[in-house]
Design goal:
Order of helices and strands: EHEHEEHEHEHHEH
Largest sheet: 5 strands, parallel
Helix content: 40-55%
Number of helices: 7
Strand content: 5-15%
Oligomer: single chain
Strand order of the largest sheet: 2-5-1-6-7
Radius of gyration: 16 Å
Distance between the termini: 14 Å
Structural class: alpha/beta
Number of strands: 7
Length: 175
């Protein structure tokens, strides 16, 4: 495992898993949303595709994303491992709601100065709404990709419970 995509729906714990893998494997971690959102106002980085291409061409990395459409195929082609956090909605929704509530109430700065706001909770692209409405579609998209002949060389680790994720991560150990 040297080029690892950690995939799943919003709230699954992709960033947490990616950071832990990065630490255990001594592989650089890259937060996809921090690369994508360049500044306040959720501005999208003009350099995003080039930055991701540069990272993807490096010998080792961990990225916490299914991949934005502009870079999705590139990431899946360059990865050697996909860690799929495939949790049910009953696990995802409390996590995403707690996280978004904390970020909103504490005005946490995320992704280059952006913040979740109360007004955003009513938008369809808010993480909580997104996780609820896109859960089945994201699972289907990932399932389709792992069976796509272009990506059959990938090692796929599908984790369906928080306990199985913790156990698997524990088996990797620290370096």
């Amino acid at each position: 495992m040297q080029r690892i995509l950690v995939v799943g729906i919003s709230g699954a714990g992709k960033s947490t898993m990616a950071r832990a893998l990065s630490s255990r494997l001594a592989v650089p971690y890259h937060e996809m949303d921090a690369l994508y959102f360049a500044g306040p106002g959720w501005a999208v980085s003009e350099r995003f595709p080039d930055q991701v291409a540069e990272i993807a061409s490096s010998p080792s990395w961990v990225i916490d994303s299914f991949g934005y459409p502009a870079v999705r195929d590139l990431l899946w082609e360059r990865a050697d491992t996909v860690v799929w956090l495939d949790y049910p909605r009953r696990v995802i929704m409390p996590r995403i709601l707690r996280r978004s509530l904390r970020r909103t109430l504490l005005r946490e700065s995320i992704f280059n100065g952006n913040r979740e706001t109360v007004a955003e909770w009513f938008r369809r692209d808010h993480p909580a709404w997104w996780a609820w409405s896109q859960h089945a579609a994201r699972r289907a998209d990932i399932q389709q990709r792992i069976h796509d002949p272009r990506f059959t060389p990938l090692s796929v680790i599908r984790l369906t419970t928080v306990q199985s994720s913790a156990s698997w991560l524990g088996s990797i150990g620290h370096r």
